[in-house]
Amino acid sequence: MSELSADARRHLLEQLIDSLDPRLQPQLREALAAPTPGALPAPGQTVVIAGHRAAGKTRVLPLVGRLLGRTGLDLDRELESATGRSLRTWVAEDPQAFRAAERQALLAVPPGSLVAVGGGFLSHHPEALAGMFTLVVPVSFETYRERLLADTSRPRLRPGVTLEEEIAHVFHEREALHSRVPTVPLVDFLRALWREVTP
Questions:
Q1: Nearest residue to 174 via CA among 121, 127, 128, 133
Q2: DSSP per residue, the chain
Q3: Counting Cβ atoms within 10 Å, is residue 33 exposed (0-12), middle (13-18) or buried (19+)?
Q4: CA–CA distance, 75 with 80 (Å, rounded to integer)
Q5: Residue 152, pLDDT score
Q6: Which of these, 51, 101, 159, 184, is most buried using a 10 Å CB contact count?
Q7: What is the spatial distance between Cα 67 and Cα 12, in angstroms, rounded to a whole number?
Q8: What's the mean pLDDT in 103-110?
């Protein structure tokens, strides 16, 4: 854990909640006060930030990093930097090679790292997450849809159907796949930290 003061951690927690899907913020704030226990990573355990495309993983990464006292790594950006390939074209031209590369990239990070993975990681590589503390950033379907319709830089995953159809199909398919992977809801992590800074 970082050496931040209680006030600094409380401020970071507020920032983190504010960075999440606005539609979910009221229920997330309510869940912080729930009596159920929170969850924190074990010392030296790799922390993975996962979830749907457009959930806000890249925004959450530096905030979680400051709370944990770790430097965050965005796996998609690392892959682009290491290979010189844009994810948009890589996923469109050779999705299997991209999936193999992202899996290998995660397995190559040192234990105790903090890593944000792409939106398809949970669906395609659940076994690669064994033993890791995998936090899922929540997003409602409505917000997911709005963000993907507005963001033309993202690769198409189902070019044979309309964008609206792709958005709906991918979201619901991945929701079902995500539910089978052992993960930690982000709110459980936040709850554990919130109790440390709340009188």
A1: 121
A2: -----HHHHHHHHHHHHHTS-TTTHHHHHHHHT-SS----PPTT--EEEE-STTSSHHHHHHHHHHHHT--EEEHHHHHHHHH---HHHHHHH-HHHHHHHHHHHHHTSPTT-EEE--TTHHHH-GGGGTTSEEEE----HHHHHHHHHH-TTSPPS-TTS-HHHHHHHHHHHHHHHHTTS--EEHHHHHHHHHHHH--
A3: exposed
A4: 9
A5: 86
A6: 51
A7: 7
A8: 96
Q: Which two tokens stand for residue 183?
A: 């993960």
- Tens-place pLDDT, residues 146-183: 999 999 888 889 989 999 999 999 999 999 999 999 99
Q: pLDDT tens, 33-52?
A: 888 888 999 999 999 999 99
What angle do the packed helices 6-18 and 57-68 form, to 10 degrees?
170
Buried b (16+ CB within 10 A) or exposed e, 38-69: bbbbeeeebbbbbbbbbbbbbebbbbbbbbbe
- Predicted TM-score (pTM) of the model is 0.93
Q: Specify whether the CB–CB gap between 32 and 191 falls below 8 A.
A: yes
Q: Which fold has domain 43-185?
A: Rossmann fold (3.40.50)
Q: Are 147 and 125 in contact (CB under 8 A)?
A: no
